[in-house]
Amino acid sequence: MEGLYTDEQIFIPIISDYGFKATFGNEENTLFLRKALQALIKSHIPIKEVKFDKNTFEGITQDSRSSIFDLACTDENGNHFIVEMQYGDAPNFAQRMKFYSFHKFNAMVKKGKFDYSILEKIYCVGILANNINPYKHFHNVSNIRNEQGELIDNQMTFVTVELDKFVLQEIECQTDLQKLIYTMKTIHTVTQPTQFPQFWNEEWLKVAIDELDSRKMTPDQKASLEILIARNAESVNKEKRQLQKMVANFLGLNLLTVEQIATSVGVSEDFVLSVQRQPPAI
Fold it and tell me: pLDDT tens for residues 200-212?
């Protein structure tokens, strides 16, 4: 996703590593993060404060699949938020969300909070460039429910946003959630201020957009961005080559279907087919 940014663009994509850290991970001004989290969990209660937590997930898993565990924070009421951006294929993303959430849950219990009725809430938010759910809605909030859809427990909440499914136009965006996702999908395509939607003048969005304005970056910031883009591009290419090799090995065995190979490797069926169409190495 870093490849979305070019020198000709004014705004850096939010859905890039740099853009995500500059907006959601802005520790000096958390207004955008707080409003975004409130919108993502569909809460009517404003989040007044957030404190960034140490990333306790580093080194736990090597299965990155072109993604990073972006941030963890806690609000003034003790609610925990885990936010991850995924810009590659993610067929097993739901399992990774459960892994993060249960790790946080276990950490709470180990600290002596054995009274389960007073455990703080955990919100695990996944923002994906591509689709993973077989539903048409771009935003899904999940809890433990019975077969009638009645809520059993909401101590742990899973939120997924699939950007590819969001098709609303500027004039149709009325809620903060819609404004947020519209901004995430389009900010890097804007070349003239006249293209700004009126709601981009709202303070919480202005805070984020200012951080993405490449014209306001210092030379050191621009250098850091260029280095990050180069590193990410090499990392993604290296991982892609490794996945292609794994898929090619499975195809060479001629034992599994395309769907089975995709599931085993953790890639899309289209990825497997693209490897299958490649001429054999000489």
Answer: 999 999 999 999 9
